[in-house]
Structures are given as C-alpha cells and as structure tokens.
Amino acid sequence: MKRLASILLTLILLSALPIASFAEAPVKFTYIDFQAYGIEFMDELMHKFGAEHNVEFEIIHSANGYGDIMAGRVNSGDIPDIFQVEAGPAMVPYMEYAVDLTGDPILEGFVDELLSGVTFDGKVMAVPGGPVCIAFMYNKKVFDDAGITKMPQTIDELEALCEELQSKGVTPFAFGHQSSWITGQMAASFISQENVLDPTDTIDKLNSGELTFDTLKYYKNVFKVIDLTIKYGVDKTMEYDWERSEVALANGDAAIIHMGSWAEPLLVEFNSEVELAFMPIPVTNDGSAIPRIMAGPTGGWMLSKSSADVELLKKFAAYFTTSDEAIEMSSQGLRIIPPTKKQSPNGVAGMLNDSASYYVANGQSTPLIYVSYPLGFEWEHGILLQAYAAGDMTMEECIAAVQNEWDMAK
Amino acid sequence: MFLKRKPHARLVNGLDFAMFTFPALAVVLITTNIPFVMSIYYSLFDWNGLSRSMTFVGIDNFIRIFTIDAQFMKAIQFTIRFAAFYIVIVNILAVIIALPLSKSGLVSQIGRSCFYIPNIISLIAVSLVWRFLFGPGFDALADLTGLEIFKWSWLGTSTLAFYSVLILTVWQSVGFYMIIYVAGIIGIPQDIVEAAEIDGSRGIGHFFRITLPLIMPSVTVCIFTSLIGALKLFDVVLAFTKGGPGGSTATVAWNIYQEAFSKYRFGVATAKSVVFFAAVLVITVIQLTFFKKREVEI
Amino acid sequence: MKKRSAAQIYVYVLMLIIGFVWIYPLFLIFFNSLKPYRDIMIHFLDLPSVWDFSRYADVWVRLDFPKLFLNTIIYTISSVFLTVLLASLAAYKLSRTKTKYSTVVFILIIIPMMVPFQTYMISMIQVAKQLNMLGNRLGYIIVQTGLLMPLAVFLFHGFVKTVPRELDECAYIDGASRLRTFFAIILPLLTPIAITVAIIDALAVWNDILINLLVAGAKQELLNIQIALYTRFSAEQSDWGTALPGIVISIAPNILFFVFMQKYIVKGITAGAIKG
C-alpha cells in the first residue's frame, strides 16, 4: 500500500511539473518605438500588462537608429511584434508585414477621424496614436510682459511683433534650425494652405505636375518667415537643435519656437512655471488665408502578422491605447489627447492642448499634410530648407532643389 | 616517419592549402564579397529595402544618379575636397611631429602617447567631445576671452563646418600616421645619416634629400590609408554633423546610407555604391603605382 | 650619447607643450563631467569645485554598464582571437605558396579593404540571416571576424616574408606536420605583427557601432558600450550633464589599456609598418 501511495504521489508530482512549466512560459513580445520622451510611462504600461498576462516585453526605444534597426530586423525576418510608425506613406513599406485590423473589435474605442490616418485602400493597418498639434509656440509670460496681446494675422504683422519684442529687450525666436525636420514641418503649413478643404488634392496635383513648388500660392513665403526667424533669432540659431530651442523657450530666453504639443511634458520639466500657447502661422500678406495650426495624428503602432500570439498582441495594443490607464497616462503624463472616444474624467492636461482645441474649434486648423508626401521626400525637404537658412542656397535654387527632390521621390 | 609519394603530393598540398586558407576566405566571402555582388544585383531594381517584392528597372538607377541627383554630386564634391585637405594636412603634420619624436627616451614616449591617444577612442566619443567643445565649450571660451574666433558658428555654417570636421578627424588620426612615420625614420640606417652629416647636410635640405626618400614606404602606406579613410568617411558624419548644416558635410558614404535608410530607395543606394567602389578602386590603384615607383631601395 | 643642442631642447619642450594641448580636450571633458550642468556653462575651464561622482553612478546604472562592459569584452576577445588565428594561418600559406590559386585567393581576401561598408550592408544582413547569424553573440563575432580579416591578412602576409623558408623545411623534415610546424615555430616569430593586428582589431571591435546595431538588431542584451552611447546621446541631444560621464566611462578602458600596453603598441606598429 505504501509503495502504491508513493508511486502515485510521484506520478502526481511528475505530472504537475510539465503543466507547471507550461503554464509558466511567458509569451515574448518585442516592442519598438522612436519616442524620445514619455518612455517611462510606456514602460509602465507594458510592465503592468506583462504582469497580468504573463508576457515578457523586450522594449527598444530608439530615437536614433530606428530606420537601421527596422531595416535590419525586417530583412532578417525578425520583425518586432509591435512597432511604432509615422502616419502616411511611411507605413506603406511595412504593410505587407502588418495585421489588417479592419473591422476588428479593438478599433471600437477609437475616434473615427484618427482611424482614417492609418487607413490605406480601405484597410486599417495600425492602431492610431493620439493627435498632436504643430505650430509656432510662444511663452505667454514673455508676451504679457512685452505687452503683446494680438496674434499676427499676416507675415508683416509677425515682423512687427518681432520688432516690438526686440525693442523690449526680448529675443523673439529660438528656432531649432539644426533639427532640419522642424523647418520641414513649418513649411508644411504653407503647402497645406493651398487647398485647406482637401490637402490630398494638393499632393495629387504636385504628383501629376499640375502644381509645382514654384507655382504654389504660399511656398515662397516660407523663405520670408525663415528669414524672420534668423533675423530676429538667437545668436548661432543654426546650432540650436530641438532640445536647445525648447530650453530657451521654457526659460524665457526667447519668446517663440516652432514645435508640437508632444513637447509640453519636457518643457514643463525644464521650467515648472512656464505658460505656453500656440500661435497660428500666418502664411501671407494678402489676406487670402488665415493663420492656422496643423493638427492630426502622427502615427500609430503596427502589429506584426508573424507574431507568436496575434490575439494577445491585439489585446495588448488595445490596452496600450484605449484602456483607462493608457488614457490617463496619455492625458496627464504625455499630455497628448488620447485617440479614443472615451476621454479621461480629469480632462487632458496641457496648456497646449487647450490652446489647440481653441483654434480647432475656431476653424483655424489644417491636417498634417507632410504625412502624405511621397516616401523619402520629407527627410530631404528639411535639409534643403536648412541649406537655404544657412545661406548656402538662394530661394530660387532651393525651390528648384525641392522640386527635384519631389520628382525623385514620387 | 613516412615520405609522401609523388603522385599524391598535389592532392596533399591542395588539401593542405585549403585547410590553412579556407576558414579565412570563407568568413570574408560570407561577410563581404558575396554581399557586395548581391548588391550589384539590387542596383538594377527599384526596391524600398523592406518589402519582399521589387521592380526591375535596368540601369535607370545609374542614369538617375548622374543626371538628377544633385545631392549626390554635392556629396562627391565635399568628399573630394575633404580628402584633398585631409591627406595633405594630416600627413604633413604627422611627419613634422614624427621627426622630433622619433628619438628614443621618455620625452618622446610621452609626446607620442599624447598624439596617439585620441586615436584609440571611439569615433562617437570623439564626436561628442568635439560637439561639446564647438558648442558650449566655445561659448564659454568666448565669454572668458572675448576672442572672435570663439564666437563664430562652427557647426552652424557650412564653410566652418567643413573645417570643424577636418579639425576633428585630424585630431583623432594624426597619431596613427605619426607612429608609422616614426617607424620609417627609425629604420633609416645610421651610417647614411652620419655620412650625410659629415658631408655638411643639415636642416631642411637634409630632410628633403635624405630623410624623405628613405621613408617613402611609410609615405606610401600613410597616403594610401589616409586616402581610403577620407573617401570612406562615415562615422564622423553619423555622430558629429549628420550631414548638416543643409547637407553640406555629407560624404558619399553618408549619402548612400541616407538614400537607403531614410529615403527607402535601396536600388539607387546600391547603384551609388557600385559607382563609388569603382571610383575608389581606380583612385587607389593610381595612387599605389605612383608611390611605389618612388620608393628607394637601400 | 649625442650631445643635445639648445635647439633640440627647445623642440622637445615645444613638442611636450603641443602634446599636452593636443589631449587637453580630454581633460576638459573629464573635469566638466564632474560639475553640475549649470556650472559647465559658467565655469567651463575651471577645475570642478566639487568632485561630484554621483552622476557617474547614475549613468552607470541607467545605461546598465556592467552588461555593456561584459558584452564588449566578450566580443572583443573572441573576435580578436579568431581573427589573429585565421588570418595568420591563411597569410602564412598564401605567402609561401606561389601559385595562381594562391594569388586569386589572396586578392579575394584583400579586396574588401577598398569597399566601404555601407555598400553591402543590407545584403550582408540577408546572407547572415540565411546562416542564422543574426541576433546572437556568435553571429556578431563571426561577422566582425570577417570584416577584420582583409587588413589582418594583408599585414600578416607582408610580415611572413621575414621568416626564412628554411625554417619550414627543417621542421617538416623533422617529422612535424604542417600545422604543428606552424604553431610551434612560425607563429611565435610572427608575434610583433600579431600584436599589431590584435590591437587594431581590438580597437575596431571595442569601438564598433554600426555593425552591432545591424547584426544585434538592438536586442537589449547584446548591446555594446558605443551603441548605448549612440542611441542615447548623438548628434541631436544636449543633455551634457549625463553625456559627459557616459563618455568618460566609455573612454577610460581604452586609455587605461593604452597606458599599460604602450610599449608593445608602438613596437608592434613599428615592426609591422616597416615590413609591410
């Protein structure tokens, strides 16, 4: 009897072991993004989910080298399970590797307009991220102290405003010229104002040749504004990258920069008492267009078709963007409006979001047109404008080069 | 102990040869030669580097490089101009430092270390060091000394950026060439030197008529290495300027890298690489033949 | 001992001064890494008032330096060992054998020196993928070995000429196999150039960024020191307060290594250069 009992016990124990280890083996997900900040919040979400669902995350935050890493991994067949992408044509190369989410229940929590930013040929290929706003950003206190109350409606008024600031001893601009993508983004405002109701029409016309950069209504004014940012800018403005320009704004060393709403957490970190607001960009002097801010989703996360557990992955994607914790983290931590229908009961923190909402409600916004550029154009666009800013190209040369680059990319 | 029989000798020698050389050959083939041939294949296609499909375009990519790609031409100009300045400056500087430091003794050792240490630090650390110096460093120095030179925008204007890159690369690499020249100078037989001195040769004349011809092997090696290094320059651009401002410090290698990874045009990028490789090959062969002829046998 | 003329002494002193100025940037980095961020801007040239090592501890932990060091050391030692071994074997045989095959093989091995890495980067990854060399340490080591091989073989090849052929024959007739001949007799005589090669290769692997990025795919556990530095602080970051300690930590091993190995390095390059 005793022997039987011990045999039975051993068998039970032995059988329990494989079950136990089978239940223990966690699923491994690889996550990659190109975020430069807010990383702690995202890590936290992943740890929470990982703990609850027995998932082990390999997290790669790569503000630099994202392109190399993705190219390496795609070509080696080791695509990360979930990877962040920029909205628009940047998604197209990855589409054959991504899960088609059209009609999937996890999409229900999202605002429809944002879904359109990640839809191609009628198929939703990614989980959208929250919308951001991009425009000139100014330090309210500096403006108040200098007695500025009105937003400039034309470029000439912008110049007058700069003169005013300068006479009061304030440096008007700390434009991050070294980060050429900023210059490119600013130029996008001017391009999108060509046809505010249907910006993709402008893109189509540029592709077909019906419109050229030379014939765009407001593109030439980009250069006027660049000149202003240099003339009324900090010393060595060409050496200011995005971070340095943000520091200058936060400390009140300069009044205006060009940036997006995602920067608010960092700005507040630099100076907890800073007061910020958006300034819509005037694109002309003839009154044919009102100043606007750019607003729209910058991208989202794509899910890899070859993931070990696509269903669990989808669950995670939903959690990461639409769960209460995610909404809260986005609203309070990242200060980005969550892309969801449901919003945080505490509202979205952020002076910039308030400012942006005001302009959007007022009809003074335009979509982020640069996400619809042909692939590969945006990168060089900023660099060419930077060459003009550095004094290496005249306006005509620059426009010709930009046109050339567009033609090469389309 | 058995002697091998003649008929089998060839086979044995063959196997022998294989055993010694094939591991090395295999590794090189896998990592470089085969990939390079593969990329020649890609240059005939329009491919974005990520998708599984690509379209055949023949020599379109090559035509395009030479006709409408202005940035590529700009990169070529920069690379050539940089190479010219770099080779001349770094070699002259290296020789000048090598002369006094080729004597033996503690002073020489310390001196040589000072110049060689920048060479063992990674390029990224060097780039960060000099970014710091040209940026906040110069700002502080400008405040302290009030000198004009510190107020210029070394990284923000294209003319100065060229020199910033030059200064950085020379600083980092002169030690390497210096040591090769030191080796060459040490290798000059003392009797020749003494005979020349007895004949009244000294100073600059001595250098050009005795020293220089006898260190020609070192010169060949150094010019070859500095030439290739300058033409292939990439790491510095990656970590120091990212091609800026406005693409004015973009080298050919950087341009190729951008084309592939930032603009998603792999076919074009590989086409450029093929052209680049051919150019480098031609240039180095010319350089080597020219200099080999001038080496003096003792 | 030749008498030193006054001119020579002046030159010596001048050299020392210039040498000091030459590496002064490094001193500046070190001193400034100990100051709080504000101080760096204001008191750039001064010695730090407080030697604050706390940021070092912070960076050490944040970037996980212990793991980075371990990885980098493993990579460096393995690649160098493999390269020196395979390159010396191959170069010896290629130098001794005067056939057409030998020339062809030699050229095949040497020619990559002319080709910049970017030109075949992506294809290399695809080949590596086929051979299962991506995302693991062994794969990275093999790739590094392959990339270092051309120069290594080139250097060894020139140097082998200085070893008399008669030595090969003597040993062989005495009954040693070819391989044994090589390891027992030839290799020890190649020591100077082997050291040169080892040093050049060690530096290349220690300081590598790009290949680590591509082959390791930035898998966290495979990173080396330079990559961590690159992904955190590069052309657009200005967080000097954290970057400077990071730089010092990454440079320190190199400098220490050099200080200790100085004699051999100079000897090795000297010997290699003359024969090459």
What does this structure look like?
The complex is a heterotrimer of chains A (410), B (298) and C (276). Chain A is of the alpha/beta class. Chain A is 46% helix and 15% strand. Chain A contains 16 helices and 13 strands. In chain A, helix 2 (39-53) links the parallel strand 1 (27-33) and strand 2 (55-61). Chain A is globular and about 100 Å long. Chain B has a two-stranded antiparallel sheet. With 298 residues, chain B is mostly helical. The mean pLDDT of chain B is 81. In chain B, strand 1 (45-46) and strand 2 (55-56) form a beta hairpin. With 276 residues, chain C is an all-alpha fold. Classes of the chains: A alpha/beta (410), B mainly alpha (298), C mainly alpha (276). Chains in contact: A-B, A-C, B-C. Chains B and C meet through helix 1, helix 3, helix 4, helix 5 and helix 6 of B and helix 1, helix 2, helix 4, helix 5 and helix 6 of C.
The biggest chain-chain interface is: B-C, 92 and 97 residues
What is the total tally of β strands of chain C?
A: 0
Radius of gyration of chain C: 23 Å
* Major sheet details of chain A: 6 strands, mixed
Task: Give helix % range of chain A.
Answer: 40-55%
Helix content of chain C: over 70%
Rough shape of chain A? globular
Please tell me the overall pLDDT of chain A. Answer: 82
**Helix/sheet category of chain A:** alpha/beta
- For the terminal residues of chain C, how far apart are their CA atoms? 31 Å
N→C terminal distance of chain A:
83 Å
- What would the average pLDDT of chain C be, to the nearest integer? 75
Low-confidence stretches of chain C: none
| Number of continuous helical runs of chain A | 16
Secondary structure elements and pairings:
The complex is a heterotrimer of chains A (410), B (298) and C (276).
Chain A: H1 2-24, E1 27-33, H2 39-53, E2 55-61, H3 66-75, E3 82-86, H4 112-116, E4 119-120, E5 123-124, E6 127-128, E7 131-139, H5 140-146, H6 155-167, E8 171-173, H7 180-192, H8 199-208, H9 219-231, H10 242-250, E9 254-260, H11 264-270, E10 276-279, E11 293-297, E12 299-303, H12 310-322, H13 324-334, H14 351-361, E13 365-366, H15 377-389, H16 395-409
Helix pairs in contact in A: 7-9, 7-15, 10-11, 12-13, 15-16
Chain B: H1 6-42, E1 45-46, E2 55-56, H2 60-67, H3 70-101, H4 106-120, H5 123-145, H6 158-186, H7 190-198, H8 203-214, H9 216-231, H10 235-241, H11 252-261, H12 266-294
Antiparallel strand pairs in B: 1-2
Chain C: H1 6-33, H2 37-42, H3 54-62, H4 65-96, H5 100-110, H6 121-130, H7 137-160, H8 165-173, H9 178-189, H10 191-206, H11 210-216, H12 225-232, H13 240-275
